[in-house]
UniProtKB/TrEMBL annotation:
Gene3D superfamilies: FAD/NAD(P)-binding domain, Succinate dehydrogenase/fumarate reductase flavoprotein, catalytic domain. GO terms for molecular function: steroid dehydrogenase activity, acting on the CH-CH group of donors. The keyword Oxidoreductase applies. Residues 32-61 are annotated as: Disordered. PANTHER family: FAD-DEPENDENT OXIDOREDUCTASE 2 FAD BINDING DOMAIN-CONTAINING PROTEIN, FUMARATE REDUCTASE. Residues 70-516 form the FAD-dependent oxidoreductase 2 FAD-binding domain. This is FAD-binding protein. Residues 47-57 have a biased composition (Low complexity). It comes from the Bacteria. Keywords: FAD, Flavoprotein, Oxidoreductase. The keyword Oxidoreductase applies.
Length: 546
């Protein structure tokens, strides 16, 4: 039996997760050091900055060439492709600057599919989801922590985005309501990689749009207080009065991760998205918004010792014990204390699971031999009694399967230093310096005996004691398919400066903007890429109407 489903199909949870196409996930840990950062710093020193932090001028690089257009789009992911399509079809000259050698290397090229409303596919299946329905759910979930007007504007754009993709013949299906949200918003994209993005790229080029591949944006050109274009790392200045930055977040940028999360995040997605786009806007006078989140790993977690891809080619875990993060047992932080209702991580691994692991920095799953052997034998879903309260459990084959290589993988984990087996809880505590672990286990066992979690309210089916030797422990670190959060924008996707004034001509779309994404990540599947596509439509409308 397989232990991990296809990550795109699993529960319909996927939103913007992806791999760097053609290279798999090999070497996807956050990159150390940034030559671009150093170069940018040197250039800023040479140019000088205004009192408000924005560039007064950008010195031309000797020997650089120029291209001119109406709009320069930086990044060929969901937001960038959709913005370029709508602008080019409307007659605007558009140049798309993309760091990768193809548009097929974005998270959009490999994600499961977007949440959208009022699309042709929903209408055909009699499952129309209104804008009011989708907006109401997401705005309520955000607890008004986002720019509500912007959220609605981006969601309104999802209809046009998905209908355009349908008209281009991109195959998709409407996903079931796995989470019990009360609506079917997620459109599962049935192609991937080059096959997925090709229709959009071809349509953009047919409408006159131009792509500059293997060309990364370095600086937003600002002269005399006005956006003038983009300086690239390929010796080309793209001159344009309108710039749309949408480079896919900062999954590959450990410096930004440490700044906003206080911990690095293991990259499961496109590590080329290293935060350069966000830094470009900040350097041009923009400001960060407050909401930063990750799309956690719904296939489990990873260990600090993980190198390369944590998955095989068919999306099985390289080590089956990564999946134990999802089972809702006993979890502790680095002090050995519980920090969350573990059931919530099993229910919502992308949203709540990702946030919980970020906050902990490292987390530990503790279990006894009864639990461990049950997972090996009947599987976690059966062991817990197939609880009706476990929304996703009944839908997920992941929870019904058992490890094929438990003994081998356990020894591998022990050898790598992120797992341990011992005769006492005290030994587990000593191994990972978890001072409070023994007291935590004793208290937790009391809740299990009583059938009621007096600390976090975990439901009875998930309360399994840690009593039978030998005992097991597994250490996990944050991992994610993508990031949410970045530049503060207004309801028109214009970058805002530190004084909350829009920067004329400078727009930020997709996950580089932080004003439509909340913490934790939305619990309706496909929310991130849906908002990205919708923001691409909306930013095009704003530029066309300006």
């Amino acid at each position: 039996m397989k232990t991990v489903m296809d990550r795109r199909a699993f529960l319909g949870l996927s939103a913007t997760g992806a791999l760097v196409a053609g290279a798999g996930l090999a070497g996807c840990a956050p990159r150390q050091g940034r030559q671009q950062d150093a170069a940018a710093s040197d250039e800023e020193d040479a140019a000088g900055a205004s009192d408000g932090g924005a560039q007064e001028a950008i010195p031309r690089v000797e020997g650089s060439s120029t291209k001119e257009c109406d709009v320069c789009v930086v990044g060929a992911g969901a937001a960038g492709l959709m913005a370029a399509l709508k602008l080019a079809e409307a007659g605007k000259s558009v140049i798309v600057v993309e760091k990768a050698p193809s548009a097929s290397m974005s998270n959009f090229a490999m994600c499961g599919g977007p949440a959208a409303c009022e699309t042709k596919l929903q209408e055909q299946e009699g499952e129309t989801v209104t804008l009011d329905t989708l907006f109401g759910y997401m705005y309520d979930f955000s607890r008004a922590s986002v720019n509500g007007a912007l959220l609605r504007n981006c969601l309104a754009g999802t209809s046009e985005a998905l209908n355009a993709m349908i008209d281009l013949g991109m195959p998709m299906s409407l996903w079931p309501d796995v989470y019990g949200n009360g609506f079917r918003a997620r459109h599962y994209l049935e192609s991937e990689g080059e096959e997925r993005v090709a229709p959009l790229v071809e349509a953009i080029e047919a409408a006159g749009g131009e792509f500059l591949y293997s060309t990364g944006g370095e600086k937003v050109l600002v002269e005399d207080g006005a956006v003038r274009g983009v300086q690239t790392d390929a010796g080309i200045d793209v001159l344009a009065p309108n710039v749309v930055v949408c480079t896919g977040g900062f999954l590959g940028g450990e410096d930004l991760q440490r700044q906003v999360f206080n911990t690095p995040v293991f990259s499961l997605g496109n590590s080329l998205s290293d935060g350069t786009g966000i830094k470009m806007v900040l350097d041009a006078g923009g400001a960060l918004d407050r909401n930063f989140a990750v799309l956690g790993n719904e296939c489990g977690a990873v260990a600090a010792a993980t190198t390369g891809s944590p998955f095989t080619e068919d999306w099985h875990n390289v080590n089956e014990h990564y999946g134990y993060w999802l089972f809702g047992g006993l979890y502790t932080d680095t002090a050995g204390e519980r920090f969350i209702n573990e059931e919530e991580i099993a229910q919502f691994p992308l949203a709540i699971g990702g946030e919980a692991l970020l906050r902990a920095g490292k987390a530990y799953v503790v279990m006894d031999s009864e639990y461990y052997e049950a997972v090996k034998g009947e599987g976690i879903y059966a062991y817990l009694g197939q609880p009706e309260s476990w929304v996703s459990g009944s839908e997920a084959d992941y929870y019904k399967t058992t490890p094929e290589n438990a003994e081998t993988h356990l020894q591998q984990a022990v050898d790598e230093g992120w797992a341990f087996k011992a005769d006492t809880v005290a030994e587990l505590a000593e191994k990972f310096s978890l001072d409070a672990l023994e007291a935590t286990v004793e208290r937790y066992n009391g809740f299990c005996d009583a059938g009621e979690d007096g600390d976090f309210g975990k439901s009875a089916p998930f309360l399994k004691p840690v009593k039978s030797a030998p005992f097991y422990i597994f250490e996990y670190v944050p991992s994610a398919w993508g990031t949410n959060g970045g530049v503060k924008v207004d309801s028109h996707l214009r970058a805002m400066d530190a004084d909350n004034n829009p920067i004329p001509g400078l727009y930020v779309a997709g996950v580089d903007q932080g004003s439509a994404y909340c913490v934790p990540y939305y619990t309706n599947p496909g929310a991130s890429v849906g908002l990205a596509l919708g923001s691409g439509v909306y930013v095009a409308q704003e530029i066309l109407g300006a």
